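anyone seen this seq b4? input:
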Amino acid sequence: MIRRLAALALLPFALTGTAFDLQGHRGARGLAPENTMAAFRRALDIGVTTLELDLALTRDGVLVVAHDPYVNPDLARDGDGRWLTTRGPLIRSLSQEELGRYDIGRVNPASAYARQFPEQKPADGERYPTFAQVLSLVQADRKPVRLNVETKLHPDRADEAADPATFAAAVVDAIRAADLTSRTTVQSFDWRTLQAVQRLAPAIATVCLTIRTSSNDNVGDRDGMPSPWTGGLSLAAQGGSVPRLVKAAGCRGWSPFWRNVDAAGIAEAKALGLTVVPWTVNEVADMGRLIELGVDGLITDYPDRLRRVLAERRQPLP
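predicted toks r here
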């Protein structure tokens, strides 16, 4: 038992052929309202190894769980139970008490977003959780579940969130206070916060998030200059290799958009000592293909599907 717990404490950075990191995206977004306590409890009931979630800072400096920098009208109802008709205020402009007035326990059925998740079960009355609430949930769980927390900020929109140093300091302080340093990773598309975390708390592992599509690319150089997302690092200086760029950034893990993953990229990343956990993989066939390629884990809205795929393949979980 002691050896098993020790191995779990190192997940996902000491994964072997006998372990797989099953990460529930925003808790279990396909099954329960995203980034709510209901979603996190649902994910734990399914048996995830890691809860993946997003963080924001309120005006009064409270870390809360939220994907968008503003109150999303697809997710939020006001104190009278009415759906917001336009984009709500920035979270950083609200106190934690003011933010807590919004009900995020279901998706607006009139929205296109709702049609993406027909299996999601409402949980009326859910509020934006604080990070402290999620930390307490993890501490109380009988299994040593991990946390993978994402800092949400945009280098071109500084008004939307706290600056990288302030954001990173708040996250590090919360993780340390909960004594979950060895069981938490910090990830981001904006690598400036990851660099700040590395300086403040080298023991907290960081994960570089990447995407490369025709309309969205956070790593490619722009007009001969490094991307604003990569903390001053140039992809061209790394020979065009995203895994080498991730390594140069000091990240211990690489979390690419799942459509960008191929065998060569995985092999290169592993040779550099990186773990590879693609996001966000929801179809069974895609899960199976990526497992065959040798990924160390997957982030999914449907942890129940991934758990079945792993069971069918006799892929053991902790």
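Residues 1-17 have pLDDT under 50 and may be disordered. The chain has one domain: 23-312. kinda curious what u guys think
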